[in-house]
Specification:
Protocatechuate 4,5-dioxygenase, Chain B, 10 helices, 335 residues, 35% helix
């Protein structure tokens, strides 16, 4: 019988691919963003945000502080990679969101599962004319070339059939027809590049539409899908040791430490009500990737959250940036 032997979750912000000195590139994007998302659902520009909250984070955006946080994040990623290596899974289910890399306005599935042989990556950050700092990001996203990642088609088909039988409507994907135009993106490439350490662990990509209304699933729906996913894995006759990995988050592009720390606490205590009650207003733009964690938490309820780390990566005085989170779930008694 297949069983989930490990759960992981990791932010995948571009900051994790850059030195702290290069974080200014993203700060400039924040200052030019006309729709910075607040957790009460409002969208504001940087000047409006600064007028509302003041420069309250000015003392934590020095290069010294940012470099210390970058080192802490790098150490956290290595901790996740250590756990994955020790667990020796036969397959990794990666729950991530697509940001106009594979899908677009023509077709935008709410939930989809890939059951092809090879997950092909989009090479958009390796093309001529790409700035050097963005090329570094592309390297960590596996988006500097049309990399081919081994998938797990038979197990993916089991998951699709099992979810459909549990009344979860799933879009099935079998191939990437033209990887120069559309292919898999950063949510999946970051996990493979930074956590797999070169090992060819077959992947089942689960793509959750977190970013693009109108068909973004609610938090409660995501948690129920996660529970259904766990049932499907447990019902598989195969011997697979399975890792479930959430990619993305936490709050951004305005950091909300209360939201982020609340999420980690709710996962620690298996508080399904808290996780399922997250309001849509708190899950806009980058913060929407928290839904990937919520789905994973639903799938990992039988495991224990044994380790987590959190770094609020402020990059402007008004508090824009990313809440960088990392987590490990293990079977009871595994520690």
């Amino acid at each position: 019988m297949a069983r989930i032997v490990l759960g992981l979750a990791s932010s995948h912000t571009p900051l994790l691919a850059l030195s702290a000195a290069d974080w200014a590139h993203r700060a400039a994007v924040d200052r030019a963003n006309p729709a910075l998302n607040l957790s009460d659902g409002r969208l504001v520009n940087y000047e409006q945000l600064l007028a509302e909250v003041g420069p309250r984070h000015e003392d934590v955006i020095s290069l010294e502080v940012l470099d210390r946080k970058k080192q802490a994040c790098d150490a956290a990623i290595e901790t996740l990679a250590d756990a994955l290596q020790a667990a020796e899974p036969d397959v990794a289910i990666i729950v991530g969101d697509d940001q106009a890399e594979l899908f677009g306005a023509a077709v935008q599935p709410a939930v989809s599962v890939f059951h092809g042989d090879t997950m092909v990556m989009l090479d958009k950050y390796g093309r001529e004319g790409t700035p050097s700092w963005l090329r570094r990001v592309g390297h960590d996203y596996l988006m500097d070339d049309a990399h081919a990642v081994t998938a797990a088609p038979e197990f993916a088909l089991e998951i699709i059939h099992g979810l459909i039988d549990r009344e979860v409507d799933v879009t099935s994907l079998a191939l990437v027809p033209d990887p120069r135009r559309a292919a898999f993106g950063h949510a999946f490439g970051f996990i493979v590049k930074r956590l797999f350490r070169g090992r060819a662990i077959p992947v089942v990509p689960v793509l959750l539409n977190t970013y693009f209304p109108p068909n973004v699933p609610s938090a409660a729906r995501c948690h129920r899908i996660g529970r259904a996913l766990a049932e499907v894995v447990a019902g598989s006759a195969g011997p697979q040791r399975v890792a479930v990995i959430a990619s993305g988050g936490l709050s951004h592009f305005v950091v909300d430490e209360t939201l982020d720390r609340g999420l980690l606490q709710a996962m620690q205590t298996r508080d399904a009500h808290w996780l399922g009650s997250l309001p849509r207003g708190a899950l806009n733009s980058g913060s929407s990737e928290i839904l990937n964690w919520v789905l994973a938490a639903g799938a990992l309820e039988s495991l224990e959250l044994t380790w987590s780390a959190y770094q609020p990566l402020y990059r402007t005085p008004a508090g824009t940036g990313v809440g960088a989170g990392f987590a490990i779930w293990q079977p009871p008694g595994a520690r």
